[in-house]
Amino acid sequence: MGQESITYVEPVADDWKGTARYEVLGRLGKGGMGVVYEVFDRERRELVALKTLLHFDSAGLYLVKQEFRTLAGVHHRNLVHLHELGVTEAGQVFFTMELLRGHDFRQYVRRPEARAPSVKLSAPPPTLALAQGDRETAPPPRPDATQGATSVPKEESPANMDRLVAALQQLASGIHALHSAGKLHRDIKPSNVLVTREGRVVLLDFGVATELASRGAKASTGSAGSGEVVGTARYMAPEQGDDAPPSPASDWYSVGVMLYEVLVGRPPFLGSLTDILVMKGRIDPPPPSECVRGVPPKLDALCRSLLDRDPARRPTGLEILAELGATHSSAPPPNPVGGADASSAFIGREGQLTALRGAFEAARSGLGITVRVGGASGMGKSTVVNCFLDELTRNGDALALRGRAYEREAVPYKAVDSVIDALSRHLMSLAEADELPPLPDDVWALARLFPVLARIPGVGDAEEPPGGDPQAVRRRAFAALRALLVSLAQRQPLVVFVDDAQWGDVDSAALLLELVRPPEPPPLLLLMTYRDNEAATSPFLVEMRSGWPAGAEGRDIEVGPLATGDAVLLALTLLDADDDLSRRTAVAVARESRGSPFLVEELVRSNRGLASASGPTLVVFTLDQMVAQRLDRLSDAARRFLELVAVGGRPLPVSIVAGASGVDMSNDLVALLSARRFVRVGLRDSHEVIEPIHDRIREAIVAQLPSATLREHHGRLARALESAPGADGEAVVGHLLGAGESERAARFAEGAAEQAAAKLAFDHAARLLRLTL
Asked: Which of 86, 606, 676, 695 could form a disulfide with 626 if both were Cys (CB 3.0 to 4.6 A apart)?
């Protein structure tokens, strides 16, 4: 069945018996909207957890997709590892993730012998006692911190302090990594923090997570700015109840409530939802040390600072990790370095910025313009475009509908699905302001393709004519989107942005080609970024190129290596200094980076505070030294795993590398190497693949290997690849040659050539025969 013929239906999750790929083994949990199953993934050949909607509706569909996309591309051992987002042929949306077993945070850190504290604790929790009608204005009384202190002895804290500190370190590490990736959780509580049998702490359930606001722009919310209170009242920060913009400090307040609860045995505030939110904004709870005995002073102080009513006074992630004594190896990767801001994204990119501005002006004058921004990974394509869009939208001068094609998704129209989600958020905000434009007559057809639009007033109620050929419905849906975008572009300049377009599908290309087709396409700027090395193999990019309509306006922008002077300037900006030492450091960094913005940042990160001058002498890490230093921090198993990834030299299934290295397949290890900026993780044919994050880093890893180790690694990879179904003959032969097994390589190449010829793959057979000779 083609993706264009898939429609969403209203299945009941409890009736779902699985698919050809997923065998349902049991139900793990059930909430108000979703249900989680334990399933066997026949393609991965492993047990995974699968989450789907309990009952289908447009709001639930939106939240499930947002939950998955929040963590897309974020890998950390203390954040749940997600696999794939998909839609069954029956129209049921779901996503899969790693299967975890253990206890929630509160159970894990509680002493087994601890009993529930007496109701007459020395410092009772604050309560709200206001006259009816005065609930919003009368300040609640500050509880007497000494009340009952002489009549009831303080009981021992129910927390196991050793477990608590270790678990808090991991939790803080995961949250800090989430914030560093520009994400907020917004519902941190004990039931969303699981501790496995091995003691690994994992943050779960990102159903109401959101993006951090970007450069003054308001963050997107799951409620589309409806003013709805998001989170759990007991654990949310006081500012969340006021519908203030979310911030990392809000998540840290929730951690403070969890810490208070496990130290004392009860939350800092009790009462109704309204009472709790009012108290949080007006009074401070008594310190844990005044409620129970045995609270370490450092934890007592940390808890009090996390529960500060002023978000600005709460500690940051790095400060919390330092207070908890996190070691260098356990801490997450550092934040972006130096004084980098939006301007650093434009260093050396003035030509690209000028081209983007020119295209926008053409679109604002009434033309439909498509700009394709291509370049290698790590060149800063997405950063340049996003900073350009921030510049456009900061003062409300333009509307930017931003989306991204996600490698791990198998949803219909995957390159534009998240753009439509952004469109639904904008239309919801217009409806709330009573400014919703007239909807196209065929909006029902558009909602058939993208059911998330049904949550917009007037769309879900649109009458769908009976019958209808699926292809005709699709054409009417495309036309409805085109008409809707024309209507929006008449109100204010409009930009549609698809990031990582190389992961898109043919159906998305068909929709966008229809969108830009003359005559009179919508007067908007369509922006796409893509990796140029995927141009010949991406179905989306191939279809966009071969099907480009005659007369449609298309422009190309290349983002390549920085010029030497620009690389020096970028390094100085990241160093946030301009003295003689910094300038010489910047020159050395620019030389080593060869114009890669990614490597400039990595080298600056390694050299900050380490460069020193003694007369004319300057000590600066080279790329090889930087890689060697990071390698030294890895365990033997992690280092061997990484070396095999580097020797592989191309995307390899994680299972192949695990088998070749003799290391148990572990998301922890992959997340560690990703966090240390050694590797990039992706998905190919439903299998996790891993590759070096940059070719220069791969070269540096391979260069430090002794020749005997290099031959051994080639041999291990050859055997692992050879035993895998559908082995890549050329890759196996290459590794056999690297292992010095030329005779075996020739025999394997000859056999693989015969198999290729039998499948009429003559070009492939010819390459293998040349290898045989």
From this structure: 606
